[in-house]
Write a structure and sequence with these properties.
Blueprint lengths: L3 E6 L6 H11 L3 E6 L2 H8 L7 H9 L4 E6 L6 H8 L3 E4 L7 H10 L6 E4 L12 H11 L6
Parallel strand pairs: 1-2, 1-4, 2-3, 4-5
Length: 148
């Protein structure tokens, strides 16, 4: 039986690290990607993504090895979307700021304790611009803007 692997993220400016995460997840099973809403991204990071949520979703839907892509919930109930997908594994990216133990406890409290939570510990570092933040900073530097 093929396992369902869930990954999440903003996927604002797609870079090789995103593709690496998706491909590593695909080695484990079918990949279900939850794309963060603009509102949630702003709430958790203090900044709105450059690319609007519907456009980010469409890009992710069309990446090889993505079985299904969904937009995160507008009501901010992240565990509800986990219930809807019912993955076997949640794979966190190396730079995602989730505490695995807290997530495991929340899953257990919602009777979702069967879901395995893992973190991909390897960064994709083949290229210098290996994060959306680094790409944005290079653009700011190139055009002599200061990051506020």
């Amino acid at each position: 039986m093929i396992k369902k692997i869930m990954i999440t993220g903003t996927f604002d400016i797609i870079h090789p690290g995103h593709i690496f995460l998706i491909n590593e997840a695909a080695k484990l099973g079918d990949v279900y990607v939850v794309v963060a809403t603009d509102r949630n991204r702003e709430k958790y990071s203090g900044e709105v993504p450059i690319v609007p949520e519907e456009q980010r979703l469409e890009v992710i839907e069309n990446i090889k090895n993505v079985k299904q892509a969904l937009l995160g919930r507008k009501d901010n109930n992240t565990l509800r979307i986990v219930e809807e997908i019912n993955p076997d594994i949640i794979l966190l990216g190396p730079s995602q700021h989730y505490d695995i133990e807290i997530l495991r406890k929340e899953l257990k409290d919602k009777n979702l304790g069967h879901i395995i939570v893992k973190r991909l510990n390897k960064f994709y570092d083949k290229f210098k611009l290996n994060s959306s933040g680094k790409i944005k900073q290079k653009i700011l530097d190139k055009y002599n803007f200061k990051n506020k």
